[in-house]
Amino acid sequence: MNDEITQEDNEIPSELDSLRARADQLGIDYRHNTGVAKLRNLVNQALSPAVESAPKIAAKKTETQLVAEARDEAGKLIRIRITCMNPNKKNWEGEIFSVGSAKLGTFKKFVPFDAPDGWHVPNIIHNMIEERKCSVFYTHTSSNGAKTRKSKLVPEFSIDILPPLTGEELRNLARQQALVSDE
Fold this sequence. Notes:
It is a single chain. By secondary structure, the protein is an alpha+beta fold. The protein has two domains: 15-59, no CATH class; 65-182, no CATH class. The protein is 40% helix and 28% strand. Strands 4-1-7 form a three-stranded antiparallel sheet. The protein has a two-stranded antiparallel ribbon with strand order 2-3. Strands 5-6 form a two-stranded antiparallel ribbon. A hairpin with a 5-residue loop joins β5 (133-141) and β6.
């Protein structure tokens, strides 16, 4: 009778054995003589992409959400004071600006020139106003004395970006608009 319990039967699995079992479970190929440190690294690398990809999947946005965010950004109001530099529009009080796209829709707004308190416009209109140019003509005299008309492109508008209205300024503006609408 062999009543003796061998030390091998009573042994807790070593870290190497646990790592080998985990690597087999994950389908990781390794050599039979791979050490503990290298096997631990292989198992950790196999587990880390699964953990990192979970937030990325949750963060992926649908086309509708992306369009909604772009529309919100395009419609965000910015307070500006605009001065027209186009000599052909020197008598104009303001201009109607219209800009849009198939996905964002159309933004249309009248913007007065030289409004002392500024004017709120959507971000997309502000960007379009900044990009507008006009031709300005001037007379150029060449070295032989001949005069010719030339043109150059200059920014059509000078834009001052003003800080947003404070809470008190908004309340005063609301009172003024209420008085005007009651009349």
